Amino acid sequence: MELPNLDQTDQDIIRLLHENGRMSYAKIGELLNLSRVAIQKRVEALVENEIIENFTIRLNATKLGKVVSAFFEVEVEPLYVQHVGDKLSADPNVISIYQMTGPSTLHMHALLKDENALESFLYGHIYTLKGVLRVNTQVVIKRFKQGTGLEL
Question: Is there a domain that residue 83 lies in?
Answer without folding.
Answer: yes
